[in-house]
Amino acid sequence: SDGVKFIRSLWYVFTVAHRSIELAGDVRGSLRTHEISNRDIIDFDIDVKWDGSQLSYRAFAQVWGRGEKDEEVPVAWMSGLVDVQTRKYCLFNCHYIHMQLDSRWLELANAKPPLTLKSVTLEELKAYITLSKSDRLEVSGLMQWSPTSVSEECIEIDWEMKEGYNPYRMKKENITETGKILLLHGYCAKHNGFLLDYFDDYLLYEDYETNYLHDEYAKNVLDVLEKNGSTRYSAVGHSQGGPVALHLFTYYQTGMDAVENGRVIQSIGSPYLGTPLAGIIALIGDAFGILCGKNGDLTYDGAQRWESLIPMEKEAEVYFYTTQYPKEAPLLQRYCLLVSQLVLSANNDGITEQTKGLLPYGHLVDNYEGECHIDGMRYPRQLGNVDRTKEINEKAAR
Length: 398
Hints:
Blueprint: E1 21-33, E2 40-50, E3 56-66, E4 72-83, E5 85-86, E6 95-102, H1 104-109, E7 112-123, E8 130-140, H2 159-163, H3 167-170, E9 180-184, E10 202-204, H4 214-228, E11 233-238, H5 241-251, E12 265-268, H6 280-284, H7 300-307, H8 312-315, E13 318-324, H9 338-341, E14 363-369, H10 386-395
């Protein structure tokens, strides 16, 4: 207003994804009987064009069939992590991704072939950016098969219809191992922060000063668990460890499916909906006290895209705690970390904003004032609370 010219600028990181995969247009359907459950399973082999630079993707699609009057009928929605596969002895159109559906969904919808996949989408796993999408793909095959005609009242939607056969669920009564507690540290953690003396029986995952996306982290955990031979455990995650536990519980079959009578997942200070400190600030500075770089799954955009496809019933198994600086403390003595306060909204633990630590369908147990995210901040670290650690140990499913 005083005539001084200025330029208003904003530094914002846009994630650019390499288009490594593309839907090729063909879908091959087939029917098989599961060797253990004896359920009829519909397999979808979806052809793709692939450059080989990435193996895993997140895929989802709507399944449609035909009704009594040959009208299109919605059947189900499929989603999951998929790996690109290659057909043997193949010269052309050799790459595909595989998805599957319990045939009872067709029975429930009173639908039959021909089947159509709609809104077929493939996303990369660094920021869940869409790489390829098709509004409609026709499924070849299955024309000689028709689902059993039954009334809706005869079909009870169970976990197997929604998740597929799970050996941990089916055999939980036969698993004699005493349930343990899997402890997962956060992004770039320098050392173990859990009070181990207050956990009865635990599995401590240790891979410090590292920067993994959720799926990379989850696969590393699975490798350790496989070598350890553990088959029954709940999970406790600090910071990124919380989302990683939920990622494992959603996309993989693990010992978390075998536990009973308690909380399957518990977390402290987890930025389920992201933190700005994992984005641009992690690239230009060191708000964490370490230089680990950007993590797309922990940015606002990446975290919220990741969370958008987590089923409500999976989130409902999560019990989480948040902490923050004391709101009534004098201004100059209030914040956990002054440098991070420059980019964080009010009520935070120095890393995670309280509003971004709220998992939409999870259970907030409590929000503690006067505790910060890690060592080296103004107030005690959140993992150092003895009473809360005892509560977590007591409430954990086993």
